[in-house]
Automatic annotation (TrEMBL):
Organism whose genome encodes this protein: Halanaerobacter jeridensis
Alphabetical list of Gene3D superfamilies matching this protein: Glycogen Phosphorylase B
Glycosyltransferase subfamily 4-like N-terminal domain mapped to chain residues: 65-155
Keywords, ordered alphabetically: Transferase
Protein name, as recorded: Glycosyltransferase involved in cell wall biosynthesis
Residues of the Glycosyl transferase family domain: 171-332
GO BP term (any one): lipopolysaccharide biosynthetic process
Length: 356
């Protein structure tokens, strides 16, 4: 499993907490040849099929039948349609359906079909936010009682660091300058980095040395992003690090003046919680699940309004008291999310489904 993705983090941390609960005896981890994982002390069943393949749909019913599986939990929207056991699945978001230009027609059709089938076939659907729950109700006419909202959490190594030497070292390593904004995530169009750069151009008029550090994969939107950087003379103000180690990411969060999250849509949004856990002030979008996640621990803006985005960033950069308030509120807010709590609520769903 890829720990960098939201799905990878969800699966890894849920299994880790299940592994700590002694009352669970008959728990099996199903993995294919590409994702087989031996980090956890669980019964491991190997599936030879690739994820999202037709072969997977044909193989999984035999695997669950032969291993006498009572309940199958899929950590995403794909599940074995022809299974005769009970089904729980987690739907994190419906991004491909809202931003179809970023995905293939086949992927969109598959997701629509699986979610539609889940409405009838799944015994329970877990969503990671109230926003995703409402998306399923509004767009697929799910019954409210079929859906259980269970917030996710972040890895436990995110924390506030007071080591000045370590923070200065990370600034020098990535040439961030004294003050910098941080963004963590991919740069697909719906992540709205193009508008963030236009906002940065306005912020630069007030602070010519401000830098934006972008951590993550250079996705499909890179060409557009680079063109905007050239148009607004931001080549010296923006830095792409690619993926970094967990140790460096922790320090980059802590050393940042503010974390900016301009996404047009999120099913949850882990990076703002990671930033809050580090005591870093958060400036974030006011759409989808993000307000539900950050609550009063962030300055929020309309992600379609470049001027409002720029003003929100400038307000935080120019106001030390506001930075301190956001840092304090963020630390408290981050404590509300716990993988232990997520695991317990997920097990309650299992018990509810099995007892029916």
């Amino acid at each position: 499993m890829n720990d960098w993705t939201g799905l990878g983090k969800y699966s890894k941390n849920l299994i880790k907490e299940f592994n700590n609960i002694q009352s669970i005896d008959d728990l099996y981890l199903l993995s294919n040849k590409k994702t087989e994982d031996n980090r956890f002390d669980l019964n491991n069943i190997k599936c030879e099929s690739d994820v999202f393949s037709i072969k997977e749909q044909l193989e999984l019913p035999f695997i669950t039948y032969n291993n006498q599986i009572d309940l199958f939990h899929s950590p995403h929207f794909v599940f074995p349609v022809f299974n005769f056991n009970k089904i729980v699945l987690t739907i994190h978001d419906i991004t491909p359906l809202l931003f179809s230009e970023d995905y293939s027609k086949m992927a969109i059709m598959y997701m629509k079909s699986m979610i539609w089938l889940a409405k009838f076939r799944a015994n329970k659907v877990i969503t990671v936010s109230k926003n995703t729950k409402q998306d399923l109700i509004d767009k697929f006419n799910f019954k409210e009682e079929k859906i259980k909202v269970t917030h996710i959490a972040i890895d436990d190594f995110y924390e506030q660091i007071d080591d000045v030497q370590a923070l200065n070292t990370i600034k020098n390593k990535y040439n961030t300058g004294e003050e910098y904004l941080l963004y963590v995530g991919n740069i697909k169009p719906y992540k709205n980095i193009s508008r963030l750069l236009k906002a940065l151009a306005k912020v630069k008029k007030y602070n010519k040395d401000i830098k934006l550090i972008i951590v993550g994969k250079r996705d499909d939107g890179y060409d557009e992003v680079f063109d905007i950087m050239e148009e607004h003379n931001l080549e010296d103000n923006v830095s792409f690090t690619g993926f970094v180690s967990n140790e460096d990411l922790l320090l980059l969060y802590n050393a940042a003046t503010a974390f900016v999250f301009p996404s047009l849509y999120e099913g949850f949004g882990l990076p703002p919680v990671e930033a809050m856990a580090c005591g870093t002030p958060v400036v974030a979008t006011n759409t989808s699940a993000v307000p539900e996640v950050v609550d009063d621990a962030a300055v929020k803006f309309n992600p379609y309004d470049v001027n409002e985005m720029a003003k929100s960033i400038i307000d935080v950069l120019d106001n030390k008291k506001l930075q301190q308030k956001l840092s304090k509120n963020g630390l408290k807010r981050a404590e509300k999310f716990s993988w232990k709590k997520t695991a317990k609520e997920t097990l309650e769903v299992y018990k509810e489904v099995l007892n029916k």
